[in-house]
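Example 3.
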Amino acid sequence: MKKIKPPILIVDDNEVDRYILKRLIKEAKLELTIFEKKDGQEALEFLENYEANRKEHPDGFPPILIFLDINMPRVNGIQFLEEFSKLRKMIEISSCVVMMFSSSEREEEKKIIMGHDFVKGYLVKGTFQAADLKEKVLAVIGQHLDSI
Amino acid sequence: MNISKKLMLIVILTTAEVSITVYSAFEIAKGAKFHQLNFLHLKYVHQLTKSVKKIENNIPIDINTIESDILLIRQQPIGCIEEINFLNHAIMKAINTDHTLTICENDIEIANETLLSLDRYRKGELSREAFLLNLNTSLNGFNKNSEMFEEPIRKTVSFVLMTLIPLVLIISFFNIIFISYLSRTISSSIRNLTLLLSSKPDSTINLDDELDIKTSGELKALVIAARQRIKNDLLNIENSIELKEIINSQTASLQQANDELAQFAYRASHDLKSPLSGAKSLANFVIEDIKAGETEEASRNALVIYQQMEKLETLVVDILLLAKAEIGNEDRDVIDFNQLIIDMKERLTWLMKDNPCTLETTINLSVPVKSEKARFAQIIENLISNGLKYYDRDKDAPYVHFDISNEQEQLIITVTDNGIGIPEKHQSEVFDMFKRFHAETSNGSGLGMALVKKHVEYLNGEISLHSTNTGTTFEIIIPMDKLI
C-alpha cells in the first residue's frame, strides 16, 4: 500500500523562513506533503478553491495543519484567522488546525490568536530545533502520522 | 443725590428733632424750678415774719436766726439769676418778661440792706424800734417781689409750651414725610436697577449705556465694579478653557506620536529580528551541511545568509534615513536633477538589469531649485524603484515616467507607471511604515513611502496618489518659497 503523506500548508511571505521550516520538518523526519503560500490572501484563495484542489490533490487536500506567520502583506496572520474561522463553517476543513509561526510574541496579538480554538500552538522563529518541532507537531496531528 | 448723602440728611433731621424735643423738656422743667424757688422764697419770708412778730411781742431778738432767714431768702433770687441763661434772657426780652431779672435784683438788694441794718443793730448803732421798722419794710418788699415774680414766669413757661411743642410736632411731621420720600427714592433706584439687570437681553438696548444713564452714585459704582469683576471672571474662564483646549490637543498629539513611536519600534524590531533569526538558523544548517559533506547546500545557504545581511543593512539604512528626515540639514545647494537621475540609475542597476520597463525622465525647470539634495534623491529613487518593481507582466510596454517642473510658485513632481496598481482598500495605508502590498515582490524595508512622505512634509509639500489596475500616478507639490 502506498504510504500517504499528510498534507500541511506553510503561509509565510519570507522565503528564507519557509525554507528553514521545511528543512526542520525534513530533519525531524516528518513525512508530510508541504504546500507553501506567500501571504494570507494566497492561502485563503487556496482553501476556498476547495473542489478544484480536491480533484488535483486527491490525497493531499485539504491540509490538516497550517503553519501561519503573522506579519505578511495584504492579509496578515490575524486577518487570515478571522476569515479561516468563517471558512471552517462552510467547507470541509474543520479537521484542519493552525500552528502559529512568527518572530513576534506580542501579548495582545497572542491573546486574540489563541482565542481561536483551532489554533493549537505558537512557534517563535529561531527559538526551536527539529526535535522541538517534531514533538509539537506530533502532539497536534500525531493521529494522522501513526502509519509512520 | 447719592444714597449716603440722603441717609446723612435723615440722621441730621432726626438729631435736630430729638434735640429740640429735649431742649423743650428742659425749658419746661426750668419753669417748674422757678416756681419752686419762689415757693422757697415765700417760705423763708414767712419764717422771718414769724420772728418779727415775736420781737413785736417783746420776746428777745434772736439775731442769728433772723440773719440766717435773710440769707436763705436772698439765696432764692441769686439761684434764679444763675438759672437764666443767654437764650432764656433773649426769649424773655422778646415776650416782655425780662423784668423778672429786675425783680430778682431788687429782692437781693432788699436782702442786702436788711443785712446791713442787722449789722448796725448788732453794733448798737441802730435802736430796736428802728431795726424792727426796717425789718417790716423789708418783709413788705419781699412779699411784693414774690407776688410780682409769679406772673412773668408763668407767661414765659406758657410761651415756651405754646411755641416749642408745635415746632417739635411740625419737625416730626416733616421728618416722617421727608424720610419716607428718601427711602422710596433709594428703594426705587435699587428696584429699577434690578429690573434692568433681570430683563431679557434685547439687541436694540445697549445695557452698558442704559446702566450709565439710569444709575448714579454708589449704585453706579457698584454696577461698574460688578461689571468689571464679571468681565475679569469671564476672561479667566475663557483663558482656562483655552488652556484646557491647548493641553487636550497637545496631549492628543503627544499620545499619537507616542503610539506611532511604539508601533514603529515594534515593527522595526520585528523586521530587524526576522533576517537575523533566519540567518542564525541558516548558519546552523551550513555547519551541519559542511559536516555532512553537503557543500553545495552549504554554499547556497551561505549566499542566503549574505542576502539576509544585505536586507538587514538596507533596513537599518532606511531607518536611519527616516530618523534623519525629521531633522533639517543646513546644506542646501542648487540641485542638478540630471546628475541626480544618473546617480540614481547607477544605484538601481540591480533592479533595472532584468526589468522590462522603459524609464523616461523629463526635467523642465525654469528656475534653479535649491534644497537638500539627499531628500530629493530619496523621494525620486523610492517612487521610481516602486514603479519599476511593480510593473504589470500582462502589459506589452511597461513604463515608468518621471517628470519634474515648476509652475508659478510650485514645484511639481509626478511619477506615473502602467503597473499593477494599488488595490483601493490599501491606498490609505500606502504611506504607513512597514506596509507592503504585494507578496511577490516584498524585498523592500516597507519604509520607502513613509520616508517619501516625511521628506515631502518637511518641505511643506503635499503628496497624492491615483491608482487603478491600469497604473499608478504619484504627484508631489512643493511650494517654491522653501526651494529658492
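The helical segments of chain A are 15-27, 40-48, 50-56, 77-90, 107-114, 130-141. The radius of gyration of chain A is 14 Å.
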